[in-house]
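Example 4.3 (complexes with small molecules)
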Amino acid sequence: MPYLSPALNVMTSAARKAGRKLIRDFGEVENLQISLKGPADFVSVADKRTERILIEELQRARPGYPILSEEAGLLDGPDKSHRFIIDPLDGTTNFLHGIPHFAISIALEREGQLVSGVIYNPISDDLFIAERHHGAYLNDTRLRVAARKQLNTCLSATGIPFLGRGTPDDQERFLTELRAVIEATPGIRRFGSAALDLAWVAAGRYDAFWEHGLKPWDIAAGILMVREAQGVATDLNGGERMLESGDILVANEQLHPQLLKLLKSAGRQASSAAPAT
Ligand code: 2AM
Ligand code: CA
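Answer. The structure with calcium ion bound is encoded below.
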């Protein structure tokens, strides 16, 4: 059975409570697909409502902790040694299109270190949890990253830049990376929820995941999840500044250095091809 610290217990029940609301709202979105206006406004209300439930639950149990949240920004609190980092709905585009692949993500930092994480897909009822030094679990099953060692067997997930996000150079770098990974590996997936991508690497479903320009709430819980499943998580320079830079690569110990080398060399290739400014 997984070890549930008191904080992880609070985070898990907050995620489950908010998840029940998301399930009901998701049913409504499926109905709205056929309306001319579409479900966009409804989804943004659903997103904020889920955030409110999470914040209420977390604040009730841990009133002094600051909370960094996707919609509300930073809600400050007097306890400077802790911070919750939450995403009420990761995979909004999937939710909006009636695709049942999205999650609630909640992380807890203590003294600047990630100590607890929850990623919950309410539709599949997959509850991923991690506690520093106590492992990562999917429901009651302990997680371990996959053992595949070679790039020619490595299934990766990634995120594709969208809605003009990033500069043309960022997009060029991504396309160069994509080409390098396409040439070296048997498959790449883009499922649209960074939190679930990370949880799935922890669960050994994907062998690796990389993306640029993510936000702390997309990845904080997932970083702990992967590490507690014996995986390696770094930024794309091989450093620890994932939350600051928004760039991330996760994989097992054998694949991580191979992918890092591949992606770095693709990044160099893209920047040397870019016209001087
Ligand atoms: P979000 O659903 O909470 O916004 C994947 O690329 C990550 O980028 C997701 O975790 C997603 O988080 C975020 N994202 C924001 N806008 C997106 C879009 N239009 N398409 C795909 N992902 C998007
Ligand atoms: Ca997100």
